[in-house]
Design a protein that fits this description.
This is Endonuclease/exonuclease/phosphatase family protein. The chain is mainly alpha-helical. Helices cover 51% and strands 8% of the residues. It has 4 domains: 3-61, no CATH class; 68-115, no CATH class; 120-165; 168-196, no CATH class. The protein has helices at 12-27, 78-88, 95-115, 120-146, 151-165, 180-195, 215-222; strands at 6-7, 31-32, 42-43, 50-51, 57-58, 169-172, 175-178. Strands 1-4-3 form a 3-stranded antiparallel sheet, with no helix packed on it.
């Protein structure tokens, strides 16, 4: 495309073609992505004529900034997590393919780490069950000491039971649903989908004449 990208060719026709193509790139405001390595990508058999044939033309929209949650960049383990994950990924092939696959795998590993970093969800529910067990044991000892005449104790027991039976979150696949109204809607939709009849008209049998037993036959069967 440029004069320095060809060597050993002095054809005026080729020169005019280069000028026209360069003008086209300029008019379309395209960016010729620079490359590293060898200066020329094509060589003639005589070794005297050579040229760079590979060009990567991009628009300015290609360099649009990727949206990312910047809060993760401030996490103290973010850089080390990316570096360790990148190094352990063993992918072979062309460089462009390797980079694409590594970025894809890195995203998957990152999402898995975000969903349950260090088993946070498990620790949360374990602590919640531990707290409920502790409250239950305390209530039993309190029952022995205060008996059943203490109205305040009964109210506290009822509130504790309600807390244990409360549905705080509901899991649907990989998504956690929170909030009373959202959980109600999810439960309603679940039963509506799984227990709705597949047909509008149910069959009836009131118009079918079945054979009936006489009173005499019925009496004989009961003997």
């Amino acid at each position: 495309m440029k004069a320095g990208e060809r060597k050993g060719s002095s054809s005026s026709v080729r020169h005019n073609e280069r000028v026209e193509f360069y003008q086209f790139v300029e008019s379309m405001e395209l960016i010729d992505l620079p490359v590293t390595g060898k200066k020329f990508s094509w060589f003639c058999a005589d070794g005297k004529t050579m040229s760079r044939l590979d060009h990567f033309l991009l628009s300015d929209n290609f360099i649009a900034k990727e949206e990312v949650n910047n809060c993760w960049l401030k996490h103290p383990e973010f850089t080390s997590f990316v570096a360790k994950t990148w190094d352990k990924l063993n992918i072979t092939g062309k460089k462009a393919f390797v980079i694409k696959e590594k970025l894809k795998r890195l995203k998957e590993e990152f999402e898995l780490g975000v969903v349950d970093k260090g088993g946070i969800n498990k620790k949360f529910w374990d602590q919640l069950r531990f707290k409920e067990s502790l409250i239950k044991q305390k209530s039993r000892s309190k029952w022995v000491s205060e008996g059943d005449s203490n109205t305040r104790f009964f109210h506290a027991s009822i509130k504790s039971r309600r807390r244990r039976n409360q549905m705080v979150m509901l899991r649907r696949g990989d998504e956690w649903i929170q909030g009373v109204e959202n959980i109600k809607l999810e439960v309603k939709n679940h039963f509506a989908v799984n227990f709705t009849e597949e047909w509008d008209n149910r069959p009836f049998v009131h118009d079918i004449n079945f054979k009936e037993l006489s009173e005499e036959d019925n009496f004989l069967l009961l003997q």
